[in-house]
Amino acid sequence: MLKRYLYGGIFALVFIGLIVIIILKRTDSIIPATLYEVIPEDAVIIIEQIEYDFFSNEFITENKIYRDLLKASGFSVRDSLMGIILKNISENEGLKKILNKERPGLSLHLIGKAKLMPVIYIDYSDYYSSKDFTNLFTAFLGDNTIINERRYEAETIYEASCREDHLPDNLSFACLKGIFLLSPSSLLIEESIRGMHSGKSYVSNQGFQRVRSTSGRNVYANTYLNYAILDQIFFPFVNHNYWSRLNCFTDFAGWGELDVDIRDDVIILNGMSCANDSVHQFLGSFTEQFPVKVQLTGIFPSNTFYFLHLGFDKKEEFYKRMLMYLAESGERVKFDEETDRIKRTYGLDPFRDLLEIVDDEIAWFSVEGSSDALTSKLFVIESKNGSLAKAKLHNWYQQYIHVNKFEPSSLIYQYKLDNQTSFDIYRLPDQFYEKQKAGKFFNRYYTIYDKYVLFGSNIESLSAVIYQNVLRKTLDRDPVFEEVSNYFSSRSNISIFIKPYFFLQNHSEILKNDIVTLINRSESFLRKMSGMVIQYSREGDMYYNNVTLKYTSYIKERALTAWESLLDTAAFIKPSLVTNHNTSEKEIFIQDAKNKIYLINGAGRILWSLPLEGPVMSEIYQIDFYKNNKLQF
Prior knowledge:
By secondary structure, the protein is of the alpha+beta class. The radius of gyration is 32 Å and the shape is globular.
């Protein structure tokens, strides 16, 4: 009897155990994993909610930016392969249905030293079991594909050797709790499995979840930027010895989210970014700062291909947080040592002087024609008062002379625009904070134009900026920039403008040879890009950011002229060549569409202008009306 009870008890325990296992299995199968549980932790970029129907149809067949890129870059072969893949998907009703309804995801990862690899994610949990979806995808790969499977941490990884021309040679895939993972790298599939099993995922990443909570709906995709490792996205394109320059991305912010909107002539990304409160990142320097009006476009020359603009309404707070940022990046000690050296040597505190001078805008910019990315960059400060700026910087000049016994004239160069107009450009032999991050606020030469303080590495670049401003040929009047400015917020804390072709050409020395070759091959396409704008504006404890890439259907060449001048409106009569009776030099007489007449000298500077009641009806003649050897019109 005892034996019978013993067997009965064992049977009951086994039966109950089987029931529990079945229940757990069923529970496990009906509670699928989320995308953020299976993405490897080292994702540089994450894209979710990709609208497959738009990208597989309208975008690749009709979008002008994409079609022109294929023509210019020579990627038409890849486009044909993409077409074959999409055709095969369209013929697979099960796969097509899931891609259209569930919206796939994607993440990018650095493999090795400089290879970016994707992982594609598809949620099939509402439609198929893991076994059925595996069979569905295996059928999609075709009969010529050899598939092997192996176990990794109790999960099955499938490795496919593809013999179809339109598919990569090797693919790895797995089904994890309702999420299908596909990648050319089996290492990334393994990393996904390890992450899911360990419980470490983006679900618990506070910065990621903060920006994800702001993501938009009814957009073509949601993109997430992991700024901590965002420099890795450029490793495949930049020479290894220049990678250290990319750390401006890693200490910029924590996470950013961008909603994707694509039109025929413009790509628009907008969303929110956050800075890590426990680490003093650059974006965090604008905590408590309200966005300010961007006005320095009125000083940038019209041929500016890059600028970085910073705006702040509380400059002391900005300076304090910048010092915290320098401390976090390991440069505060060097900064303090250099500040002490300058005080001991010259009795100056240059950053304090700049703080007293500056209003609420500063910027760095580069112009076309400069060949070196490092030395071509200029720095400009909008001062509250031009006289105050002159007094402060003149004190620098006086202290240099006093301490080093320089001949005063050796530090001044006079840029002479014409016989009546000249500007002083000063040399700074002892460049402050050289080879430090703080050194970007200074340079070898400086000048003052109106209320603006300009720093540059050479006399020629500063002279060119002055000349363009005298002619009123500034970026805010440039028709190419005007196209981009329609997407440019008038107020921000950080604004970046880039003309892609000229920017890449200027930085070609840091790029890999095959990338330079690709840029040259794609010149016509890149030159049709009017510009890219990136802006950040504080909103509460986060930052609204927008990225816009404007495209046009034709290249706008700049006219090659002996001189140029900007009138208030379009010219109404043809220019007439006249003589200056004092210098015997030739000058230009012209009238615009609003009946204003102008006299312009050989440098292009407007000497005077005068409104008339109507248009000039005859040719322009000069006479000595008063018989005093002076000419009138």
